[in-house]
Amino acid sequence: MANSKRRLPAAPSRSPRPAAAGAPRRHPVDSPAPESSAAGEGGRRRVPPRPTVEPSKRGRHQEIPSKPERLQKALAQSGVGSRREMEALIAAGRINVNGQLAHIGQTVSPGDRVKVNGKLVNLRFSNRLPRVILYHKPEGEIVSRNDPNRRPTVFTSMPRLSAGRWVAVGRLDFNTSGLLLLTTSGELANRLMHPRYRLVREYAVRILGEVSDEARSRLLEGVELDDGPAQFASFQEAGGEGANRWFRVSLFEGRNREVRRMFEAVGLVVSRLMRVRYGPLALPPNLKRGQVLELAEDEVKRLLAGFDMENPEADRPPRRGREP
Predict the structure, then answer these.
(1) Residue at a domain's end among 97, 121, 145
(2) Are 110 and 68 in contact (CB under 8 A)?
(3) Helix (H), strand (E), coil (C) string for 100-115
C-alpha cells in the first residue's frame, strides 16, 4: 500500500554525549562489505565485520601485564555472562580451572585454562578496554545465536573476535528495527540492562488508526499487562497522514514486546516499530540498516565512567544485591 512506503520521520535532534576535544569521529561500517579498513579523519578507522587484522593487534587493544582477577569477573568480561550467573555456575560445579573444580572467590591469571560446561574459554582480563558496537538492526533478524527455525541472526553481521564474544544489550523483536548495542564485556552489558540505572529506551512507532486522547492518557498513566503494569515516560506526535500516524514514545525498561503490547492494551495496532535511542546513545542518522559502528576509545571510557567502571585495571569486588 502507498501508506506503507512513507518515510520514517527524522530522528530527534538529540544526540549522544559529544566526544572530548580532539577525539576521533565515528564512521559507519557497512557490515556486508568485505574490504579492509582504511584510516579516517583523526586516525579513526572503518571496522569491517570480518576484519583481516586480529582485534588484539589494534593499538587501542594492546595489553599491559595482567594481574590475577576473580574468576567470575574475568568470565563476565569475556562475555560469558553476568557475575551473578557465573557465581551460580561455579556453585553448581560447572566451571573448572586447570582441570580442578572452581570455587567462589578463586582468582585466575593469564595462562590458566578455564572451562565452562566443558568448553574452553578465552579469558579477557580488565587490562583491555571492552569494545562497543552500535548496530542498525533491520527487520527480519533475531537477537539470538540459537534458533530452531534457522532465521537470520544479528551476530553474523558483527566483526570477528579472536577471543570472547559479542553480548547483546537487551533484544529487539524479529519485526522490530533500530538501535541495538553489543559489547565484548558481559559486565558492561549487565549494567546497561540493569533496572536500577533507569536508562531510557526511545522508539519511533507507526500506528494504524487514530490515537484518542483517552488512549494517550492511559498509556502515560499506565496499563496492565500480563507481566505487570507498564507506562510510557513520554508520548509525542511525529507526523504521518491518512491511516498511519507516527509517534515517539519512551520508557525505562525493556520487557518482551512491551511497546507493542501496551498499544494492543488500548486497542491499537503497531504497524512499524523502530528503536532510536538507548540511554546515552542514539541511532546515528547516517547509519544504514545492517551497518555497524564501533565506539572510539574515549567514548568507551566515558561510557564505563557512567557505570563506575572508569578504571579498566581496577579489581573492584562485585556489588552486592545485584540482579542477574
Answers:
(1) 121
(2) no
(3) EECCCCCEECCCCCEE
Active site residue 173: yes
Structural domain count, the chain: 2
CATH number, domain containing residue 243:
3.30.2350.10
Digitized pLDDT (tens) for each residue of the chain, 324 residues in all: 444 444 444 444 444 443 343 343 444 444 433 333 334 444 444 444 443 333 333 444 444 445 788 898 888 878 788 788 899 999 999 999 999 999 998 999 888 999 999 999 888 776 678 899 999 999 999 999 888 888 999 999 899 887 778 999 989 999 999 999 999 888 899 899 988 889 999 999 999 888 999 999 999 999 999 999 999 999 999 987 767 889 999 999 989 999 999 999 999 999 999 999 999 999 999 999 999 999 999 999 999 988 887 555 433 333 333 333
From the candidates 147, 173, 213, 226, give the one annotated as an active-site residue: 173
**Residue (of 174, 176, 148, 129) closest to 272 by Cα position:** 176
Q: Which residues of 157-195 are buried (b: 16+ CB within 10 A; e: fewer)?
A: bbbebeebbbbbbbbbbbebbbbbbbbbbbbbbbbbbbe
Rounded Cα–Cα distance for residues 276 and 137 (Å): 11
Q: At what angle do helices 213-221 and 258-265 cross, to 10 degrees?
A: 130
Q: What would the grid cell of residue 320 be?
A: 552486592
Q: C-alpha angle 64/311/169, rounded to 5°?
A: 105
CATH of the domain at 93: 3.10.290.10
